[in-house]
Amino acid sequence: MTPWTDPTHSAAPPPRKVSRRGLYIPWAVAVVVAIAWSLWWLWLMHATVAGMDATAARLRAAGWRVAWASRQTGGYPFRLDVDVMGLEVADASGWGIAAPALKTEAFAFEPTHWVFYLPGGRVTVSRAEGGPIDVAARVLRGSVSGVGEGVPRIALEVDDARFAAGPGASPVTLAAAKNVQFYTRPGPEDHGATYLSIDGGVATPGGWLAVLSGGGPVSLKTDAIFGHASAFALPDLRQGLVAWTRAGGGLEIQHFELAAGPRRFTAASGRLSIGADGGLAGQIALVAGGLPLTLDFKGGEAWVGGVRVATAPRLF
User: Fold this and answer.
1) Buried (b) or exposed (e) across 136-155, using 16+ Cβ within 10 A?
2) What is the reported pTM?
3) Residue 6 in domain
4) CA nearest 302: which of 209, 203, 200?
5) Measured distance CA(24)–CA(300) in Å, rounded
6) Between the CA of residue 302 and those of 78, 173, 284, 305, what are the distances in Å?
7) What is the pLDDT of residues 130-174, one digit of tens each?
8) Domains in the chain, number
9) How does pLDDT run across 228-274, given as a tens digit for each residue?
10) Are 249 and 273 contacting, i.e. CB atoms less than 8 angstroms apart?
11) What is the pLDDT of residues 6-32, one digit of tens each?
12) How many other C-beta atoms are found inside a 10 Å radius of the C-beta of residue 307?
């Protein structure tokens, strides 16, 4: 006898239709994110260019010369690239730079930190006193961040550089250097710090540094702190330095080391400021060959032990 079987229980259930929604959702999310990021990048690039134009207009109104032959933007999707050709920037006091090309970039997620380099490593630095200096380097690059937030963070590195006085300019002290590095950092209570190093330097023949080094290599390392940073906030370098000095600003030397051929000079203290004539003023307590010496900047001259050794550097 065959047992009775209910066909509604023995028949296979009809197959269910598989939902493909799970396959489409990740792609839809990716498309939405890509569109949102693209719109954000376009807005950020527009804001960057508008900010650059606004800064240039503000500087021109204050007496600066700011000009460029052309500008290109790019870097999508993760960078902001701004490349400028034929750049000229100069303040009313006479300090400025001119570069055939400048390339800058920042990450889109960190648009206040910019890195830059000069293709070909060529730039002309105009001085308020002494005329232009032509710089040619294998590498000339740096970075800037924190602008508008007190002392900015600046880093500059130059490799295999040559320095030459431009037409009608006074001679430069240093003719070449293997490496130059310069940094600034913000500090507490309106203070900041700066560091400068020069390695593999070659003094210009006939100058005071060439005489001191005897034609040998030159190197310099110095770091200092400075206060009253917010006082330096006027339209050009000259007015800014004057206001900073009147507010009590100056460089407090933390370490100084100069090697000129066989001679070595070191210091762990000193204070420098800007005199009324625009030249360095102040003293650095040096040690050379175990003997204490005082490097004194006064009256536009540099003195060591009561002997004039050179003209003091002038900033205006």
Assistant:
1) bbeebbbbbeeeeeebbbbb
2) 0.88
3) no
4) 209
5) 76
6) 51, 14, 11, 10
7) 899 999 999 999 999 998 888 999 999 999 999 999 999 999 999
8) 1
9) 999 987 778 888 999 999 999 999 999 999 999 999 999 989 999 99
10) yes
11) 555 555 666 666 566 667 788 888 899
12) 7
Within a domain: 23: no
Residue type, 101: A
Domain-embedded: residue 38 = no
Instruction: Compute the residue count for the chain.
Output: 316
Q: What is the DSSP letter of 77?
A: T
**Six-digit token string for 258:** 């100069």
Whether residue 36 lies inside any domain: the answer is: no
Instruction: From 175, 106, 173, 183, select the one nearest 151 (Cα to Cα).
Output: 183
- How many angstroms separate the CA atoms of 142 and 312, rounded? 28
The answer to whether the beta carbons of residues 229 and 208 sit under 8 Å apart is: no
Tokens representing 164 are 């030459």
Those residues whose C-beta lies under 8 Å from the C-beta of residue 60, and which sit 6 or more positions away, are 66
Element at 104 (helix H, strand E): strand 96-107
Q: pLDDT tens across 168-197, in order?
A: 999 999 999 999 999 999 999 999 999 999
